[in-house]
Write a structure and sequence with these properties.
This protein is mostly helical and 117 residues long. Helices cover 72% and strands 0% of the residues. It has four helices and no strands.
Length: 117
């Protein structure tokens, strides 16, 4: 159902193509442009998720380590928040950049694959 809605959303009006002369040449070997863009978007999103997941996992691990450290301290002890700056920087700065790099890599792979096939 959702895929059909996506196809409807991305489909173009083809009424002008239906009015063409029956003698017009039709290239049967071309791929539908809607499917090409959906494939590229899928690969971009998959690459972005993979690229951003590495800094996010590292940030979650560092937060867990900081929580384990603070659990060993006696109650009321002052704790420096400096170790939390690295996970915050990973989430805010590094993950989006790595996501773009991963998405660009995924997009590059699908473009190369589509050109060679």
């Amino acid at each position: 159902m959702q895929e059909k809605q996506v196809q409807i959303f991305f489909s173009k009006s083809r009424s002008a193509m239906d009015d063409a002369s029956p003698d017009a040449a039709k290239d049967e070997s071309t791929t539908d442009t809607d499917e090409i863009w959906l494939t590229r978007i899928r690969w971009f999103l998959a690459g972005a998720m993979l690229g951003a997941s590495i800094p996010v996992m590292l940030g979650v691990y560092l937060i867990q380590q900081f929580s384990a450290y603070t659990a060993t301290l006696p109650p009321g002890t002052a704790v420096c928040g400096m170790p939390m700056l690295i996970p915050i920087a990973l989430f805010v700065f590094v993950a989006p950049i790595m996501g773009l790099i991963g998405g660009g890599t995924g997009l590059l792979l699908v473009v190369i694959e589509q050109r060679t096939s």
